[in-house]
Design a protein that fits this description.
Length: 350
Amino acid sequence: MLFRASVHVRSSGLRKRCFASAAAGFRIPVIDFSRFRAARSLAEKKETANEIVSAFKNSGFIYVSNHGISEDTVSNVFRKSAAFFKLPEGVKAQLAWEDPRSNRGYVQIGRERVTQSANAAEISALREKAPDFKETMEIGRDWDSEWKNQWPKESDVPGFNKTMLDFFQTCHNLHVEMMQSVALGLDLSQDFFDSKIDQQCHNLRLLSYPPIKRAFLDGDGQARAGAHSDYGTLTLLFQAQVGGLEVMDPQSGVFVPATPIPGTIVINVGDLLARWSNDVLRSTLHRVVAPAKMISSTETITPARQSIAFFSNPNFDTLIECLPNCGKKARYPPVNTETYIVGRLAATYM
Ligand SMILES: O=C(O)CCC(=O)C(=O)O
Ligand SMILES: [Fe+2]
């Protein structure tokens, strides 16, 4: 049964109550991360860490407030991203994403079909029938010896490259701290993950969902981004105010809107972290659909939507095998991070 569940924002700067439709028991809590940073003892730190891990066990998703990334920084990234997507198709096409091992470059509408399936033929059929209505720009660590980022010319989008590189580093730093909280919440030493996630094998993804006829999105299986889980450790998602992100309540199977809360980052567990934790932590299905609130009830075009996702990964040479404190019997065989991530990417792109 659906009902209105309240989401409480704890931070003083953001003290307000937000409402989200939710199935019974389903909650995406708002975590004030300044409490983790300001904690004067390990026990105090662990209080926030436990809240985070408890949410990752239940819904797999949290909103994080007071995360330390300024609004100016985030809005500047959104501005540069918008300027990039406004470039002529021909210019963007020259920066095309080419190889899952690189996972860098521009992905035009219809090239990716995110789904839960790991079967390439099934994904290909889905892509034909119901492609994702989005374009993206994928950015990796810039000092990789093998793979180069596909940067636009400085004169095409002034300041783009530097803005994105700075933001990449900023998100990496937050990921390290978030993983420290995950470690504490799992009763591991705070630095447990540090040396396993320090090579920045992450992927910064700029997303642009163009305005689209609502009727299109109402079609069978059609969405701005189809139901999927993410692949890595944690995803840091910055969403603009348009809305449309929905998270599946794992108990009821109902998709619940993850309504944007200004100033917060949505953070969710990816498949590799779920696997690492022997499914103690949950990697939850989510999707992007037409926003619940349209401009008017007669509106047939959904507004454009922008978001920025930072897909954090373990180091590519990290072996993912059942963590301590996560059950006696491993559910999965060990897997190398790069093999896993590249395999998933290879299946989802054409
Ligand atoms: O655009 C969004 O809000 C979510 C995007 C997403 O889930 C993804 O790219 O994996
Ligand atoms: Fe996602």
